[in-house]
Amino acid sequence: MFGDYSLGDLGAIFAMQGFAGLILFSVYVLMALGLAIIFGQMGVINMAHGEFMILGAYVTYLCSGFFQSNLPALFPGYFFVAMVLAFLAAGALGMLVEWALIRHLYKRPLDTLLATWGLSLILQQAYRSIFGAREVGVELPSWLIGSVQVTDAIEIPINGMFVMAVTVLITVAVALLLFASRWGRQVRAVMQNRVMAGAVGIDTDRVDRATFGIGCGIAGIAGAAFTMIGSTGPTSGQLYIVDTFLIVVFGGAASLLGTIASAFSISQTQSTLEFFLSGSTAKVLTLLGVVAILMLRPQGLFTLKVRR
Amino acid sequence: MSAALLPGASPNDKDFLLAVEGLTVSFDGFKAVNDVSFYVDPDEIRVIIGPNGAGKTTVLDLICGRTKATSGSIKYRGQELTRLSESAIVQAGVGRKFQTPSIYDDLTVFENLEISFPRGRTVLGALTFKRDAEVRDRIHAIAEMIFLKDHLDARAEFLSHGQKQWLEIGMLLIQDPELLMLDEPVAGMSVAERKKTAELLHQIIKGRSVLVIEHDMKFVEDIAHRVTVLHQGRVLSEGSMERVKNDPKVVEVYLGH
Amino acid sequence: MKLPTLNDNPFMKPMEWVSLLLLAGLILVLLPLALDSFRLNLVGKYLTYAFVALGLVICWGYCGILSLGQGVFFGLGGYCMAMYLKLEASSVENTRIQSTPGIPDFMDWNQVTALPWFWKPFHSLPLTLIAVVAVPTLFAFVIGAAMFKRRVGGTYFAIITQAIAAILTILIVGQQGYTGGINGITDLRTLNGWDIRTDAAKTILYFVNGGLLIACILVAQAVKRSKLGRILVAMRDKEDRVRFSGYAVASFKIFAFCLAAAFAAVGGAMFTLQVGFMSPSFVGIVPSIEMVIYTAVGGRLSLFGAVYGTLLVNWAKTSFSESFPELWLFGLGALFIAVVLAFPNGLAGIWRQHVEPRLSRKPKSPALPAVLPHGAPAE
Question: pTM for this structure?
Answer without folding.
Answer: 0.89
